[in-house]
Amino acid sequence: MDDTMGALTTFRDWYTDTYGHLHGLPFGLFICLSAVILFTVAALLYLLLFIVAPIPRGPYRNEKTYRTVLPDGRTSEEKQLPCWLDTWRARRTEASRKDLPDLATEDIEPAEVFVSVVVPSYNEEERLGGMLEEAVDYLQKQYGDAHGTFAETASVAGKPSGNKNKKTVNGSAHTLTNSTPKGWEILVVSDGSKDKTEEVALGFAKKHQLAHHPHKVKGPWKNTGHDTRIPYGSIRVITLEENRGKGGAVTHGMRHVRGAYAVFADADGASKFEDLGHLITGCQAVQDKQARGVAIGSRAHLVGSDAVVKQRSKLRNFLMHSFHLFIRLLTTRKTSKIKDTQCGFKLFSRASLPYIIPYMHSEGWIFDVEMLMLAESANIPMIEVPIGWKEVAGSKLNVVKDSVAMAWGLAVLRVSWVLGVYSRS
């Protein structure tokens, strides 16, 4: 008690003495001193922001390679991944050196397949097989082989033409052209996995390429009704040396997609993969003249339903609503109106990728919001599309810890873009 009283007395004496000195200062000097203090504090806070704002590392050389399964069932040696981003950056650098206008959208390398699926995977040996089963069943049935039997060796580049036709997929009419590339690819991005995630992906590809009646793996939504054989090379496995986080894995995969459309989907298969058709149709409906568009899988229609409320704890539901409020307060106008920013099922037209992927910084759970804000800042049309979704056991999300990290990450992200720590330059 005596120590407390002594401390209060000391503080009071210091405050009185300081106030006396300041009170005796000329007004002009007082203003100047206040301005210097405020400037110093602002500079220190800005410096702190530079320190805490995430700056992702560049990919290692071997992270720009992939493995796949060859026609004879052997796993391939590491092959170089195609990278539209490297080509795009080189062309921009050349244009800047020659003082030419910025590259137009069509300068991104043309698509070789119709749709690319990026699957970020961290220790997903238990859940990945079921997700892949439902994905390849849908993809092969709807989009077929990219180039006949040999999807791995051939490539056909196509750009949209005026000759269009409709293909109904899962109740949705896709707009296709005679030059639209066929086929699909899945990029499994193993995000520093310590288990057998990569072996599971390659083993799945081998069985579904070679076997006439491949063993079906039960997925979260259904046990596929028929055997699905897939073209060789359609599943590519990318290995990241170190865990980067879901956002880092998705961004890395998006740099190497070959599709006219690119979607990322969680490895747990919680999102109903058949609703990919609705995402593509929605994206095509809002695309601008540059063919840019983003379709956001949404679970907002399920809020309050048994699929969400009964399968989640009261704490998780409370934090979910709190985070949505936080997003509405901190994000930009159009992004703040999106009812579900965190669903792991988002699709991008190829033309929209150069406006988003080169400028990504967040590698954690909040990366979705940065993608959407970047799309909004580039005036890319976005549409929210209701999808099927269910809770799947095995989530790696720590409700309290990750919720706090997401809120902090969102605040740092927003301030960094506003104050110019991050920019498109």
UniProtKB/TrEMBL annotation:
It is found in: Endoplasmic reticulum membrane. The keyword Signal does not apply. Its main location: endoplasmic reticulum. Its EC number is 2.4.1.117. Keywords: Endoplasmic reticulum, Glycosyltransferase, Membrane, Signal-anchor, Transferase, Transmembrane, Transmembrane helix. InterPro entries: DPG_synthase (IPR035518), Glyco_trans_2-like (IPR001173), Nucleotide-diphossugar_trans (IPR029044). It is a single-pass membrane protein. This is dolichyl-phosphate beta-glucosyltransferase. The lineage of its organism: Eukaryota, Fungi, Dikarya, Ascomycota, Pezizomycotina.
